[in-house]
Write a structure and sequence with these properties.
Helices cover 44% and strands 25% of the residues. With 189 residues, it is an alpha+beta fold. The strands form 2 sheets. A 4-stranded antiparallel β-sheet has the order 4-5-6-7. A hairpin with a 2-residue loop joins β1 and β2. α3 (98-104) crosses α5 (171-178). The chain is elongated, with a radius of gyration of 33 Å. The chain starts with a strand and ends with a strand.
Length: 189
């Protein structure tokens, strides 16, 4: 077998598994059969290391997917909790102050509140949207509770509270909305 030399290095080209491409190896010393065997052994070990790392990566990716599925299940539980305890029992809450509904919320509490002005008069709030996530921007498939108020109240006041607290539902909003009378409840995703 002819082994070309570049300076003090011998160059060996080995054809791997009858493929068209060749792998070129540089190693120091005499080029002989034993060196080629060592290189092939090294390639096999590298192949198994690559396969092992690929399996580990796939496992980690699958574990991440399981964690995401658990989060989705948690969201579904939120929807189920709000629907069964508040929307289906809306007759219990109609005509009562919002503070009564808040006192019944034991597992989850509103994080942000967004107000919708009346269609006929934009200075009056007719409905409020309560969201149950810490994030202050819309999330795909998030659970929301829409409260329609029996009597409207000033949009200016609620807008000032919302801007000051960056739409988070704080104790100040709890006091503001606490005396408002509920007309209807709608929970949706």
């Amino acid at each position: 077998m002819y082994v070309p030399r570049i300076g003090n290095y011998a160059v060996s080209a080995i054809k791997l598994k009858e493929t068209v491409s060749y792998t070129v190896f540089f190693y120091c010393g005499k080029a002989n059969y034993f060196n080629n065997i060592c290189i092939l052994f090294y390639l096999c070990i590298m192949k198994y290391i690559f396969v092992l790392l690929s399996c580990v990566f796939c496992h980690l990716h699958a574990q991440h997917k399981i964690d995401l599925d658990k989060k989705i299940t948690k969201e579904l539980d939120t929807l189920h909790y709000l629907k069964t305890n508040f929307e289906l029992k809306k007759s219990e809450y109609r005509g009562k102050p919002f503070s009564y509904l808040l006192s019944k919320m034991t597992r989850i509490y509103p994080r942000t509140v967004w107000n919708t002005p009346d269609i006929k008069d934009s200075t009056i709030v007719e409905r409020s949207l309560f969201r149950f996530y810490d994030i202050n921007y819309p999330i795909l498939n998030e659970t929301k509770m829409l409260i329609i108020w029996q009597t409207g109240f000033s949009y200016r006041t609620t807008d000032a509270y919302s801007r000051r607290n960056k739409y988070y539902f704080t104790n100040a909003e709890k006091k503001l909305y606490g005396s408002m009378i509920i007309k209807d409840i709608l929970v949706y995703r």
